[in-house]
Amino acid sequence: MYVGIDVGTSVVKAAAFDGEGRQLAVESRPVELSLRGGFVEQDMAEVYDAVVDVLGKLTARVPEPVELAGLTGQGDGVWLVDREGRPVRPAISWMDGRAHELLDQWLADGTFETVFRRTGGAMFPGSPGPLLAWLDRYDPKALDAAAAAVYCKDMVFQRLTGAARASTDVSDASMPFMDPRTRTYDNRVVELLGLTRRRRLLPPVGDPITTGEVQEGLPAGTRISNGPYDLPACALGAGVTEPGDGLLIVGTCLAALVATTELDLSGEPAGLYISTDRHGHRLRAMPAMVGTAALDWVLSTTGVTHAEVDALLASTAPGAHGVRVLPYFAPSGERAPFVEPRLRAELSGVSLETTKADLVRATCEGIGYAARHCLEAAGLTGALAVCGGGTRSPAWMQLLADVLGRPLRIVEGEVGARGAVLAAADRYGVSLDAGVWTEPTAIVEPDPGRSAYYSTGFREHVERLDVARGRAGR
To answer: Can you list the alpha helix ranges (DSSP code H) found in 82-186?
Structure first.
């Protein structure tokens, strides 16, 4: 069997697949996030222990030989480790907002745009550049004690394999220090962010992805590869490799990815270009902060369960009786398809006659408009695959197809873990039929009438958003 490991923000998962890509079993374990005053951190020991735990449970359930394993996980943030890969301080999550003042400064003085024009990456508060600069200013002893500033999967890989030193891959390194043309760190960007004396902390980039042998969690000697991180891993797992084709991940964050061979560093700085193991092939990524977390907040606030969502969506018409939601609930603002750290959610058109169904539909519509905004900015021209927790709601997927005005290739299961296995197989020269492994489980067609309605709604959404961005930027 083949094992994919996906170290997510709130859940760690391990999935077993057979040679035809059929998912045999999944084991998962939640991990905690510490949220306080805009600081979002994780206990690295808890995350690593969860990885070992789910691997042990998975191999106990499916006691077959493990051909190879692929590793993926959440991107961005800062995971400071010592030479053995052990934590120097708690990991800082990609959701963290502590560095927003530094980002505000860089937005004002042109540093933000200069970095984007060099790397294709639009920094946001939870990306490594701002976080390392914040640590250098407010917690320099942590940087002094660290051997490397890595990403989530890199810490796990070093611990699982006992590697002598930390490393990362081109996907994680893409934000914000790597030149996408040379696939090496741009020292001028390091200098612009005031991090020259911390340059030693940037880990070597495995190009192609680094491999090793597992010492813990799986049978000793199991071959494993490190990467790509979760967004490009999901693109692989959904079969999104041809230029113009895209993927929408409806998860905690809403990530829009479009495969491309182009590199356009003009236009409004937003999103990033994620380098892949295929030289010259990239993913134009618009990973928004908005996502299922916005709907979860509305459900929790209104006392609605996830099981009720489909019925509520069916009970109210498109437009939600005039209720509109700009679904930017994240405490760190928004990062794609624009960067505005101070943007916050807005609800309008609400009255005493507004129902829970109206609020739920308006939120789902707002998230759909945000997805359309991201996909258009990323340059979608081909087929669109969709994965993530949101796919469990058929009514929401129909609404999303209507808002986007295009068919959705629904890909269910552990798509990131699947992509990690495909990446490992390619790295080791193991022949797997990617077409079979990435077959969609369903295709949802848009309704022409509702799509026409939502085209007008999308234009109105963008107009309201422009006004909200103007207020936030004051």
So the answer is: 100-109, 111-119, 128-138, 140-145, 152-161, 170-173
